[in-house]
Amino acid sequence: MHILEHHTTLPAAVLNSQAFPNAFGENETVDLILGEINSEELLQLWEALGHGELPYQISIPYLLRSVVIDSPWVLDDGPPVQSRTLDMQRVVGG
User: Fold this and answer.
1) What is the per-residue pLDDT for 93?
2) For residue 56, which of 67, 66, 45, 65 has the smallest C-alpha distance?
3) 58 lies in a domain?
4) Cβ contact 55:62 at 8 Å
5) Within 10 Å of residue 46's Cβ, how many Cβ atoms?
6) Domain region containing 22
């Protein structure tokens, strides 16, 4: 926790692995934020671990944010909207 507290941003150089060396671009990062786990989530975790059959240790949850996901779709920008007319009295059937 001490290391994560002082290094809350993980750059691409840390995130890329030998198996996936170019998974993250040079300008992509992941931010770590200390999270919370409520009683219901803790109970679900305990039940998933088999009520003590698997060893459970006290855990500290973290949230990750700012993960940029590339999309295969290219969205073309259309021309700016100049005006819009709404006909609120017209009934549209489906």
Assistant:
1) 64
2) 45
3) yes
4) no
5) 13
6) 2-65
* Residue 82 covered by a domain: no
The 3 state secondary structure assigned to 3-35 is HHHHCCEEEHHHHCCCCCCCCCCCCCEEEEEEC
The rounded distance, in Å, linking the Cα atoms of 39 and 47 is 12
pLDDT means per 10 residues, the chain with 94 residues, are 87 88 85 88 80 71 76 78 73 62
Q: Indicate whether 34 belongs to any domain.
A: yes
What is this structure's pTM?
A: 0.50
Number of domains in the chain: 1
Nearest to 64 by CA among 88, 35, 22: 35
Give the phi and the psi of residue 62 in degrees, each rounded to 5: -125, 150
- CA distance linking residue 14 with residue 36, whole number of Å: 25
